[in-house]
Amino acid sequence: MTIQEPGWDLYRAFLAVLEEGSLSGGARSLGLTQPTMGRQIETLELALGVKLFTRSQTGLAATDTALTLRPFAENLRATANALRRASTDASANGGGTVRITASEVVCVEVLPPILTALRETHPAIKIELVASNRTQDLLQRDADIAVRMVQPSQAALIARRIGAIPLGLFAHRRYLELHGMPASIAELKQHTLIGFDQETNYIRAMQKRGLPLSRDTFSLSADNQLVQLAAIRAGYGIGMCQTGLVKNNPDLSPVLPAALKDELETWIVMHEDLRSSERCRITFDALASGVSRYITDNDQPARTAPWTD
């Protein structure tokens, strides 16, 4: 019996089961039936001559071989998605799909009005938006364009520096009315602080500047910046965020703005092979222009909300 080289459909089924943890979950994610999913996994195991999953009390457990194969299958998925997007680029009006990745807070708080304006001027362009704090690999075509807070080093990428997004500590008026405004960095230790669950390079940099930040000092820890922002807006305590996200909210006040300012260098990045793609060029320029306006509009100190001791 001749076993054919496994096709993408089999690896797609493998990834779905791996990510969902069961045949039924993988089948739902791909719109297939469970028996079909089971046959595809069996066919892939037979073709490769390995066992990919074992049954456990919680579903299917991936074998060591499956975990070894995972990044290669993910690369296949990224390539398949890139091929699909590239196939739509033949339209003369620059239509097609563009996959954009940015951090969760940028995707939720910054990009929607920029993408809305793009939609109004170029309705033939469809957007796939990946909200992730993980740096997507543009070289592997996980995405077409990225908004990044670090300068890319790969020569195959086109990168345009947009500017620096200002950051600062903020608190809700209600919190400040109850607890007062700290008058110094030392006094921050007496306040309710919001921060990251894991110590990051950013926290270590702030520690070197004298800011008493560590996991132990945070009354609320969350690696998701949207959670931190929501807690600041709710009056939970003092936290750091982009000044543009609170500038027009009269209930939020900067805390120690002169002592604790920082910036996020911001870049729009695209693979150089997409330079000839009209839809990607249009989207790249729209993102660069929109994010630049966002930075410029919020380059001034945030307004201070009224509060009382």
Provide the residue-averaged pLDDT: 82
The helix content is 25-40%
- The value of Rg in angstroms is 24 Å
Structural class: alpha/beta
Protein name: Transcriptional regulator lysR family
Organism: Collimonas fungivorans (strain Ter331)
InterPro entries: LysR-type_TF_proteobact-type (IPR058163), LysR_HTH_N (IPR000847), LysR_subst-bd (IPR005119), WH-like_DNA-bd_sf (IPR036388), WH_DNA-bd_sf (IPR036390)
Family: Belongs to the LysR transcriptional regulatory family.
Structural write-up:
This protein is an alpha/beta fold and 309 residues long. Helix 8 links the parallel strand 7 (193-195) and strand 8. Among the domains are: 8-83, Arc Repressor Mutant, subunit A, CATH 1.10.10; 165-263, 3-Layer(aba) Sandwich (D-Maltodextrin-Binding Protein, domain 2). 30% of the residues are buried. The chain has helices at residues 8-20, 23-30, 34-48, 64-87, 104-109, 111-121, 173-179, 201-208, 225-234, 278-297; strands spanning 53-56, 59-62, 96-102, 125-131, 145-148, 157-172, 193-195, 218-221, 239-242, 252-255, 262-271. It is globular and about 70 Å long. Helix 1 (8-20) packs across helix 2, helix 1 (8-20) crosses helix 3 (34-48) and helix 6 packs across helix 10. The longest helix is centred in the N-terminal third of the chain and has 24 residues, at 64-87. Keywords: DNA-binding, Transcription, Transcription regulation. GO terms for molecular function: DNA-binding transcription factor activity; sequence-specific DNA binding. This is Transcriptional regulator lysR family.
